[in-house]
Design a protein that fits this description.
This protein is mostly beta strands. It has one helix and eight strands; from the N terminus they run βββαβββββ. The strands form four sheets. It has a two-stranded antiparallel ribbon. Strands 3-6 form a two-stranded antiparallel sheet. It is globular, with a radius of gyration of 16 Å.
């Protein structure tokens, strides 16, 4: 995953190849949606076929999800800071 898109690289030393093209800054390909991350402890939103020749992936569009200011932890100093984050809130016509 890089900037909302899936990439593959043959091992060892292969060339990186982009598999998807996100349709906007609030769209991700191959990253699990919020509920899967929080409730199922799963960050990946892609699955390889048994033979490894194909990949299925989730495309998540959060453009209709409200942005809220949430506190985050700064790893280096342990201080909280606020950052705009798309996260579920009370139901609205746009999120329900």
């Amino acid at each position: 995953m890089k900037r909302g898109d899936l990439y593959v690289r043959a091992v060892p030393g292969g060339t990186e190849r982009r598999l998807t093209r996100a349709r906007g800054r609030d769209v991700t390909n191959g990253l699990a949606e919020f509920v899967a991350q929080e409730e199922m402890d799963r960050d990946e939103g892609y699955w390889w076929s048994p033979d490894g020749r194909r990949i299925a992936y989730a495309e998540v569009d959060e453009s209709a999800v409200e942005r809220r200011m949430l506190s985050t932890r700064r790893a280096r100093r342990g201080r909280a800071r606020r950052a705009p984050t798309r996260a579920p809130a009370r139901p609205t016509p746009r999120s329900a």
